[in-house]
Amino acid sequence: MSESEAETAAISADPEALLRMAQSEAELARGEVVTADELAAAIAERRHDETATRPAE
Length: 57
What we know:
- The protein is mostly helical.
- Helix content is 75%, strand content 0%.
């Protein structure tokens, strides 16, 4: 069995993974998407927030 086939089998056997995939597909169907630029900005903001709230060493 190839690595890809093993991953597919593992996901297919995981009910939570299947539920998350179904939810993601429904979000896409409703048009709930973000652009790559929006995603990059959100990641940058989260990193900034995490750095700002970290205690000083």
